[in-house]
Amino acid sequence: MNEGNRYVLSEEDVNAKFYPCEAGDSEKLFVLIHGFMSWSFSFQSLIPSLVNHAHVLTLDLPGFGRSKKDVKYEFSYEQFTKTVQDMIDRREEHFTDIVPVGHSMGGQIALRLARSNRCVHRVVLLASSGDMQKSSKRLRWASRLPFFDVWLARYVRDRDVSHVLKQVIHDNKKVTTEQIDAYSLPLQENLMYRALSKFIRQREGDLSREELHKITKPVLLLWGENDRIVPVGVGRYLEKELHRAKLKVFPKVGHLLPEEIPLEVGEEIIRFSAGKERSE
Protein backbone atom coordinates (compact mmCIF):
# COMPACT_ATOMS: atom_id res chain seq x y z
CA MET A 1 0.00 0.00 0.00
CA ASN A 2 1.33 3.47 -0.86
CA GLU A 3 2.08 5.76 2.06
CA GLY A 4 -0.42 8.43 3.02
CA ASN A 5 -3.46 6.63 1.64
CA ARG A 6 -6.20 7.11 4.21
CA TYR A 7 -8.90 5.42 2.15
CA VAL A 8 -8.10 1.77 1.60
CA LEU A 9 -10.49 0.07 -0.83
CA SER A 10 -10.70 -3.49 -2.07
CA GLU A 11 -10.54 -4.52 -5.72
CA GLU A 12 -14.27 -5.21 -5.56
CA ASP A 13 -14.87 -1.68 -4.25
CA VAL A 14 -13.51 -0.22 -7.48
CA ASN A 15 -14.54 -2.99 -9.88
CA ALA A 16 -10.85 -3.64 -10.63
CA LYS A 17 -10.18 -6.14 -13.41
CA PHE A 18 -6.85 -7.58 -14.48
CA TYR A 19 -6.30 -8.91 -17.99
CA PRO A 20 -3.10 -11.00 -18.30
CA CYS A 21 -0.90 -10.59 -21.33
CA GLU A 22 -1.90 -13.15 -23.94
CA ALA A 23 1.60 -13.23 -25.41
CA GLY A 24 3.08 -14.70 -22.23
CA ASP A 25 5.18 -13.16 -19.49
CA SER A 26 5.47 -9.39 -19.53
CA GLU A 27 6.66 -6.75 -17.10
CA LYS A 28 4.60 -4.07 -18.83
CA LEU A 29 1.22 -2.97 -17.51
CA PHE A 30 -1.29 -0.67 -19.17
CA VAL A 31 -3.46 1.07 -16.55
CA LEU A 32 -6.66 2.38 -18.15
CA ILE A 33 -8.24 5.32 -16.31
CA HIS A 34 -11.66 6.51 -17.42
CA GLY A 35 -13.12 10.00 -17.53
CA PHE A 36 -15.82 12.02 -15.77
CA MET A 37 -19.28 10.38 -15.60
CA SER A 38 -17.79 7.34 -17.31
CA TRP A 39 -16.44 3.96 -16.19
CA SER A 40 -14.20 1.11 -17.31
CA PHE A 41 -16.81 0.00 -19.86
CA SER A 42 -15.43 2.74 -22.11
CA PHE A 43 -12.27 0.66 -22.72
CA GLN A 44 -13.96 -2.63 -23.66
CA SER A 45 -13.13 -2.26 -27.36
CA LEU A 46 -9.54 -1.16 -26.71
CA ILE A 47 -8.49 -3.94 -24.33
CA PRO A 48 -8.26 -6.74 -26.96
CA SER A 49 -5.56 -4.78 -28.84
CA LEU A 50 -3.51 -4.15 -25.73
CA VAL A 51 -3.54 -7.60 -24.08
CA ASN A 52 -1.65 -9.04 -27.04
CA HIS A 53 1.36 -7.02 -25.90
CA ALA A 54 1.08 -6.45 -22.13
CA HIS A 55 -1.06 -6.86 -19.04
CA VAL A 56 -4.03 -4.53 -18.64
CA LEU A 57 -5.64 -3.17 -15.48
CA THR A 58 -8.97 -1.34 -15.41
CA LEU A 59 -11.02 0.04 -12.54
CA ASP A 60 -13.93 2.35 -11.80
CA LEU A 61 -12.87 5.43 -9.89
CA PRO A 62 -14.75 5.79 -6.56
CA GLY A 63 -18.10 7.43 -7.16
CA PHE A 64 -18.34 6.31 -10.78
CA GLY A 65 -19.42 3.21 -12.69
CA ARG A 66 -19.77 0.09 -10.59
CA SER A 67 -17.50 1.30 -7.81
CA LYS A 68 -18.54 1.53 -4.18
CA LYS A 69 -20.19 4.91 -3.54
CA ASP A 70 -18.66 5.57 -0.12
CA VAL A 71 -19.33 9.23 0.72
CA LYS A 72 -16.55 9.13 3.35
CA TYR A 73 -14.01 8.94 0.52
CA GLU A 74 -12.07 12.05 -0.52
CA PHE A 75 -13.02 12.67 -4.14
CA SER A 76 -9.90 14.46 -5.31
CA TYR A 77 -7.44 13.78 -8.11
CA GLU A 78 -4.67 13.12 -5.61
CA GLN A 79 -6.77 10.54 -3.75
CA PHE A 80 -7.89 8.91 -7.01
CA THR A 81 -4.19 8.59 -7.89
CA LYS A 82 -3.45 6.87 -4.57
CA THR A 83 -6.32 4.44 -5.13
CA VAL A 84 -5.06 3.58 -8.61
CA GLN A 85 -1.57 3.02 -7.20
CA ASP A 86 -3.01 0.72 -4.53
CA MET A 87 -4.67 -1.41 -7.20
CA ILE A 88 -1.31 -1.73 -8.97
CA ASP A 89 0.45 -2.64 -5.72
CA ARG A 90 -2.07 -5.41 -4.98
CA ARG A 91 -0.96 -7.39 -8.02
CA GLU A 92 1.48 -10.23 -7.42
CA GLU A 93 3.12 -9.68 -10.78
CA HIS A 94 6.31 -7.61 -11.01
CA PHE A 95 5.90 -4.59 -13.27
CA THR A 96 8.92 -2.56 -14.37
CA ASP A 97 7.11 -0.64 -17.11
CA ILE A 98 3.76 0.89 -16.16
CA VAL A 99 1.94 2.92 -18.81
CA PRO A 100 -1.03 4.97 -17.54
CA VAL A 101 -3.63 5.59 -20.24
CA GLY A 102 -5.99 8.34 -19.13
CA HIS A 103 -9.12 9.39 -20.99
CA SER A 104 -10.60 12.85 -20.43
CA MET A 105 -10.54 13.51 -16.65
CA GLY A 106 -8.51 10.31 -16.28
CA GLY A 107 -5.64 12.07 -17.99
CA GLN A 108 -5.10 14.23 -14.93
CA ILE A 109 -4.77 11.11 -12.80
CA ALA A 110 -2.39 9.54 -15.33
CA LEU A 111 -0.13 12.60 -15.16
CA ARG A 112 -0.14 12.53 -11.37
CA LEU A 113 0.71 8.83 -11.42
CA ALA A 114 3.70 9.64 -13.63
CA ARG A 115 4.98 12.05 -10.99
CA SER A 116 4.75 9.55 -8.13
CA ASN A 117 5.59 6.14 -9.64
CA ARG A 118 9.16 5.43 -10.71
CA CYS A 119 8.03 2.56 -12.91
CA VAL A 120 6.02 4.93 -15.10
CA HIS A 121 8.27 5.84 -18.03
CA ARG A 122 5.64 6.98 -20.53
CA VAL A 123 2.11 8.38 -20.37
CA VAL A 124 -0.78 8.25 -22.83
CA LEU A 125 -3.53 10.88 -22.74
CA LEU A 126 -6.73 10.42 -24.73
CA ALA A 127 -8.57 13.72 -25.14
CA SER A 128 -7.42 14.67 -21.65
CA SER A 129 -8.63 17.63 -19.66
CA GLY A 130 -5.78 20.07 -19.35
CA ASP A 131 -6.75 23.58 -18.30
CA MET A 132 -9.85 23.15 -16.14
CA GLN A 133 -9.97 25.14 -12.92
CA LYS A 134 -11.48 23.88 -9.70
CA SER A 135 -15.23 24.43 -9.23
CA SER A 136 -16.30 27.98 -8.49
CA LYS A 137 -16.80 29.04 -4.89
CA ARG A 138 -20.51 29.49 -5.56
CA LEU A 139 -20.89 25.94 -6.88
CA ARG A 140 -18.83 24.48 -4.04
CA TRP A 141 -21.03 26.35 -1.55
CA ALA A 142 -24.21 25.19 -3.31
CA SER A 143 -23.04 21.57 -3.17
CA ARG A 144 -23.27 21.70 0.63
CA LEU A 145 -26.96 22.63 0.61
CA PRO A 146 -29.51 20.05 1.78
CA PHE A 147 -30.96 18.05 -1.11
CA PHE A 148 -28.31 19.31 -3.56
CA ASP A 149 -27.67 15.68 -4.48
CA VAL A 150 -31.41 15.22 -5.16
CA TRP A 151 -31.39 18.20 -7.52
CA LEU A 152 -28.21 16.90 -9.15
CA ALA A 153 -29.79 13.48 -9.72
CA ARG A 154 -32.83 15.06 -11.32
CA TYR A 155 -30.65 17.29 -13.51
CA VAL A 156 -28.55 14.37 -14.78
CA ARG A 157 -31.41 11.93 -15.23
CA ASP A 158 -33.40 14.46 -17.23
CA ARG A 159 -30.66 14.31 -19.88
CA ASP A 160 -31.24 11.61 -22.48
CA VAL A 161 -28.16 9.34 -22.50
CA SER A 162 -28.47 8.58 -26.20
CA HIS A 163 -28.47 12.31 -26.97
CA VAL A 164 -25.40 12.86 -24.79
CA LEU A 165 -23.55 10.02 -26.52
CA LYS A 166 -24.32 11.60 -29.88
CA GLN A 167 -22.64 14.75 -28.59
CA VAL A 168 -19.43 12.94 -27.66
CA ILE A 169 -19.27 10.43 -30.55
CA HIS A 170 -18.73 12.10 -33.91
CA ASP A 171 -20.47 9.48 -36.05
CA ASN A 172 -23.93 9.08 -34.52
CA LYS A 173 -24.35 5.77 -36.33
CA LYS A 174 -21.75 4.28 -33.99
CA VAL A 175 -23.93 4.83 -30.90
CA THR A 176 -25.25 1.42 -29.85
CA THR A 177 -27.98 0.19 -27.53
CA GLU A 178 -25.27 -1.53 -25.48
CA GLN A 179 -23.54 1.82 -24.90
CA ILE A 180 -26.78 3.55 -23.96
CA ASP A 181 -27.63 0.83 -21.43
CA ALA A 182 -24.09 0.73 -20.01
CA TYR A 183 -23.82 4.46 -19.44
CA SER A 184 -27.39 4.67 -18.10
CA LEU A 185 -26.87 2.00 -15.44
CA PRO A 186 -24.69 3.94 -12.94
CA LEU A 187 -27.00 6.95 -13.17
CA GLN A 188 -29.71 5.03 -11.34
CA GLU A 189 -27.69 4.84 -8.11
CA ASN A 190 -28.74 7.60 -5.70
CA LEU A 191 -25.45 7.41 -3.78
CA MET A 192 -23.58 8.42 -6.91
CA TYR A 193 -25.02 11.91 -6.63
CA ARG A 194 -23.89 12.29 -3.02
CA ALA A 195 -20.42 11.29 -4.15
CA LEU A 196 -20.65 13.68 -7.09
CA SER A 197 -21.58 16.51 -4.74
CA LYS A 198 -18.39 15.90 -2.76
CA PHE A 199 -16.39 15.64 -5.97
CA ILE A 200 -17.57 19.13 -6.92
CA ARG A 201 -16.15 20.45 -3.63
CA GLN A 202 -12.96 18.41 -3.45
CA ARG A 203 -11.72 18.24 -7.04
CA GLU A 204 -8.55 20.21 -7.59
CA GLY A 205 -7.95 22.17 -10.75
CA ASP A 206 -5.93 20.57 -13.54
CA LEU A 207 -2.16 20.63 -13.21
CA SER A 208 -0.76 24.12 -13.66
CA ARG A 209 1.79 25.12 -16.30
CA GLU A 210 4.51 25.00 -13.65
CA GLU A 211 3.49 21.47 -12.65
CA LEU A 212 3.30 20.31 -16.27
CA HIS A 213 6.80 21.66 -16.90
CA LYS A 214 8.15 19.32 -14.20
CA ILE A 215 6.93 16.22 -16.06
CA THR A 216 9.84 15.10 -18.23
CA LYS A 217 8.58 11.69 -19.31
CA PRO A 218 7.38 11.18 -22.90
CA VAL A 219 3.64 11.78 -23.30
CA LEU A 220 1.50 10.69 -26.23
CA LEU A 221 -1.56 12.87 -26.84
CA LEU A 222 -4.32 11.34 -28.96
CA TRP A 223 -7.25 13.53 -29.95
CA GLY A 224 -10.36 13.56 -32.10
CA GLU A 225 -10.53 16.48 -34.49
CA ASN A 226 -14.25 16.83 -33.85
CA ASP A 227 -14.12 16.60 -30.05
CA ARG A 228 -16.80 18.93 -28.65
CA ILE A 229 -16.15 18.07 -24.99
CA VAL A 230 -12.40 18.70 -24.80
CA PRO A 231 -11.46 20.55 -28.00
CA VAL A 232 -8.20 19.76 -29.77
CA GLY A 233 -6.92 23.17 -28.63
CA VAL A 234 -6.44 21.64 -25.18
CA GLY A 235 -4.25 18.99 -26.78
CA ARG A 236 -2.14 21.67 -28.42
CA TYR A 237 -1.82 23.43 -25.07
CA LEU A 238 -0.60 20.24 -23.40
CA GLU A 239 1.81 19.53 -26.24
CA LYS A 240 3.30 22.97 -25.73
CA GLU A 241 3.55 22.83 -21.93
CA LEU A 242 4.80 19.24 -21.55
CA HIS A 243 8.49 18.95 -22.45
CA ARG A 244 8.30 15.64 -24.34
CA ALA A 245 4.75 15.48 -25.64
CA LYS A 246 3.56 14.58 -29.11
CA LEU A 247 0.03 15.20 -30.40
CA LYS A 248 -1.74 13.08 -32.99
CA VAL A 249 -5.18 14.19 -34.22
CA PHE A 250 -7.65 11.83 -35.87
CA PRO A 251 -10.10 13.33 -38.40
CA LYS A 252 -13.83 12.66 -38.09
CA VAL A 253 -13.48 11.45 -34.50
CA GLY A 254 -15.11 12.86 -31.37
CA HIS A 255 -14.36 12.56 -27.65
CA LEU A 256 -14.70 8.80 -27.10
CA LEU A 257 -11.61 7.66 -28.98
CA PRO A 258 -11.37 4.23 -27.24
CA GLU A 259 -14.82 3.38 -28.56
CA GLU A 260 -14.82 5.22 -31.88
CA ILE A 261 -11.44 4.04 -33.21
CA PRO A 262 -10.13 1.37 -30.79
CA LEU A 263 -7.83 -0.33 -33.31
CA GLU A 264 -6.10 2.89 -34.33
CA VAL A 265 -5.75 4.01 -30.71
CA GLY A 266 -4.39 0.60 -29.73
CA GLU A 267 -1.78 0.69 -32.49
CA GLU A 268 -0.57 4.13 -31.44
CA ILE A 269 -0.35 3.14 -27.77
CA ILE A 270 1.57 -0.05 -28.51
CA ARG A 271 4.02 1.72 -30.82
CA PHE A 272 4.57 4.54 -28.35
CA SER A 273 4.98 2.26 -25.33
CA ALA A 274 7.63 0.29 -27.22
CA GLY A 275 9.56 3.46 -28.01
CA LYS A 276 8.56 3.39 -31.66
CA GLU A 277 6.73 6.68 -32.02
CA ARG A 278 6.18 7.92 -35.52
CA SER A 279 8.19 11.00 -36.42
CA GLU A 280 5.48 12.62 -38.52
Which terms would index this structure?
Rossmann fold; alpha/beta; seven-stranded mixed beta sheet; 7 strands; single chain; 13% strand; 12 helices; 280 residues; globular
Helix and strand succession? EEHEHEHEHHHHHHEHEHH
- Strand tally is 7
Largest sheet: 7 strands, mixed
In the predicted model, the low-confidence regions spanning at least 5 consecutive residues are: none
The fourth-level CATH homologous superfamily of one domain is: Alpha/Beta hydrolase fold, catalytic domain
| CATH T-level fold name of one domain | Rossmann fold
- Could you say which structural class the secondary elements and strand pairing correspond to? alpha/beta
Tell me the CATH architecture of one domain: 3-Layer(aba) Sandwich
Rg = 18 Å
